[in-house]
Amino acid sequence: MGTKSHLKSQSKGAITFKIIPSTKEETPSKEGKIFIKALFDYDPKEDKAIPCKEAGLSFRKGDILQIMSQDDVTWWQAKHEGDANPRAGLIPSKHFQERRLALRRPEIVVQPLKLSNTKSSGFRRSFRLSRKDKKINKSMYECKKSEQYDTADVPTYEEVTPYRRQIHDKYRLIVLVGPVRVGLNELKRKLLMSDTQHYGVIVPHTTRARRSQESDGVEYIFISKHLFETDVQNNKFIEYGEYKNNYYGTSIDSVRSVLAKNKVCLLDVQPHTVKHLRTLEFKPYVIFIKPPSIEHLRETRKNAKIISSRDDQGTAKPFTEEDFQEMIKSAQIMESQYGHLFDKIIINDDLTVAFNELKTTFDKLETDKKKKKGNRNPAL
């Protein structure tokens, strides 16, 4: 009080006092330290709701923050992980940020990309874009009691915890996401060829008849239509679709089968299924394979061929301008709606360069200390 009185006696006009979070020593907590990964950029100087802009903590998407206090329901106190400055700053709480983002976000309905009626669109395109009503997946992947499901598409924070893979631990699931024809299959094939003992891919299920040259469990796992539909009702598929009156799907057990062999499982799925895989069991690392600019696509892929699936006898056709535009549009939609779920973005401008970047990422992922999701918000 003496200092305040002295300031008042020596000053003229109005005096403004600003209260900021105090500096205090960290005290051991029974619950341990809480870390979160930011899924959005934040600048307190641009936040009209914050009680004191100077007390705010700015951060970028992907930053790891340590929560120092959650006593206030609207404003948490946090600091950047590893920051030597012991003073915390104010950040919007998860509930507050979700609420105002939901109120601010306009109702925009993104129409699905139209499929070509030509045969060359192939099985893979039909399978990837013929997902059933996603509400059927609400109870999938050990997230039945998750209260965060309905707000998972509002990017705020994700609780994480320090993680380093131990020798006896299974590898993290590697999820590759990208638009059709961006080169996911080619990258997976190169990774498999580089080390067949280290990398593995799932064997999909199908209800179509087995062909003479095929073996059950190699190209596909062949099951009856009745059993497939039963498994759908029991939420055993990550994603599934119908093509030429036959079902095709990727089961969660097929992922577990690859991981059980002590291999890195390479899985490519539609981005809206990623949040169902974000559990402590899989600890997925999500990589978005992004196309280059449309000018580069025209230049580098003018002589390339689109190879259809084996179910279409592997026919090939050149890329068209429509293919390039569809790829760019699809990538923009994916990044806009699900970019907060991606751990890394790789531009596939050159297959060899993209492969080397993927390989370097995997090598680093297996040796570095990383953060994984905590068990409090398994569905985020």
From TrEMBL:
Coiled coil: none annotated. PANTHER family: MEMBRANE-ASSOCIATED GUANYLATE KINASE MAGUK. Residues 31-101 form the SH3 domain. One of its GO terms (cellular component) is bicellular tight junction. Belongs to the MAGUK family. It is found in: Cell junction, Tight junction; Membrane. The gene is LOC110289272. Keywords: Cell junction, Membrane, Repeat, SH3 domain, Tight junction. This is MAGUK p55 subfamily member 7-like. Its main location: other. Residues 171-363 form the Guanylate kinase-like domain. It is a peripheral membrane protein. SMART domains: GuKc, SH3. InterPro entries: GK/Ca_channel_bsu (IPR008145), Guanylate_kin-like_dom (IPR008144), Guanylate_kinase_CS (IPR020590), MAGUK (IPR050716), MPP7_SH3 (IPR035599), P-loop_NTPase (IPR027417), SH3-like_dom_sf (IPR036028), SH3_domain (IPR001452).
